[in-house]
Amino acid sequence: MVRRTVEAHLKSLLKGFPIVTITGPRQSGKTTLSRMVFSKLPYINLEAIDTRNWAINDPRNFLMQFPNGGVIDEVQRAPELFSYLQERVDNDGRLGLFLLTGSQHFGLLSGVTQSLAGRSAFIELLPLAYNELVRGKKKPSDLNSALFMGGYPALYDRPVNPTQWFAAYVSSYIERDVRQLLKVQDLAAFQRFVRLCAGRSGQLLNLSSLADDCGITHNTAKEWISVLETSYIVFLLKPHHKNFNKRLIKTPKLYFYDSGLLCWLLGVQEPWQLDSHPLRGAIFETYIVGEIKKLFFNAGQTAMLYFWRDSNGNEVDLLLETQGKLIPVEIKSGMTINSDFFIGLKRYLALAKKTAVSPTLIYGNTTNRQHQGTHIFGFNSLEKILTL
To answer: Is 305 within the bounds of a domain?
Structure first.
């Protein structure tokens, strides 16, 4: 079992709040982390129908089994519990009583903010980060393996073929969540939509194009993107709002949270196929952006991430806004550095002037160095970004 970086932040929050809510994609390790931190307290999972009915129909009796607190897993399945949890923690007065987990962010967040405002802190737990795998001695053998495997803990905890695991994951979780959230009748169309999204990871989100290619309406495409966001399958990276007297692109970019799932959706069956894959650059960019989000989340920090592109095609892949600083980051999958890698950074720095600091290049090798004021980090050294 790989220890999670966010564990220290979680324990700190439990000292200041009666409840901490952990959300994130299914199978990202929420249950394992919760049970490890609350190893001596009761655990119950609301995915079980009889348990869920008990929690919904007799919530006070249900909560009596937690005299000293405990873990309630997949709590979004019984939103009726939230108001009773509020009453319970208010009457009890102790801190660090409950750990709640859930896999559907928007519904869970809504329930917590309405009924448990001021009583619950939030943690977003994504799949394993590269530096967590290194510490847990589970490090992928090379970059292609890291991209292909992604970060879901099950792929590192037991001998399972990633291709078979992702097929089961999509069938068991994504499609079931879709039924719960949208009651989608045509699952074949939704599956096609998800694969079309995979082919556009790292690109500007064009809902009209997605809708036309999938044979659905623009509104349906918009709704389905929201479901994928809710289930922590994809996220949208917004363009930075700073205007340098040029027309800026206002459309967000689409990314998958996990590069392993992305590879499976793109039909990649072996790591070596990534060497010549036409979307290798987009897969690598997806991986890096996702890893950087994990670094911030695991440190208990808000990930203020953007990209920058103007109407002339000038672009920087990622802008990190942290502690009042704006750090431009260029992402290149190549293993050999060449002058073209720095074009976007140079153009952005010329426009941004003193508002940007610490320009950074992340590439597909493992050697770190400096080049004319630019930090160059290999894909295996992303945690250094937190120190810039």
So the answer is: no
